[in-house]
Amino acid sequence: MARGSTLPAPRRGLRGAIAYRGGEGMLAWAFHRISGIAVSVFLTLHVVSIFMVGANPEFYDALHLFYASAPGKVAEVLLGAALLYHALNGTRIVVMDLWPALTAYHRQLWRIVWVTFFALGLPGAFIILSRIWESAK
Length: 137
What we know:
137 residues; mainly alpha; 3 helical TM bundles of succinate and fumarate reductases; 80% helix; elongated
C-alpha cells in the first residue's frame, strides 16, 4: 500500500458483513452459480420423477398434476429463467475465454446477456403463464 493512503473503515455488524461490495463480474459469478444449482436440482428431480413411472405410478401422476397447476407453471418459468441465464452467461464466459481481449468489455457483454435474457425470457414466460390466466376465466 502506498504511504499515506488510508483504508476505508471496516463495516461493523451483520449488515456490514453481508453488504455487497463487488461489481458486475461478481454478480454474474453469483447468478451463474445460483442458476447452475437450480438446474442441478431440476435434473435430480427430473430423474426421480422418471424413476417414479415404474416405482410408484400414483406418485408420478400426482407430481404431473402439480406440474400442470399454477404453482407448477410458476416453477417452470423460474426453471426456464435459470436455464436461459446459465446458457447465456456461459456463452459470455466462453467468448471471453476464446477472445481474451474481450474481457475488457465484460460489463457490456454482461449487459448484452441481460438484454437477450429479457428479450427471450419475457415472451416465453408470458406463453407459459398465459395458460394459468386462460384457465382462471
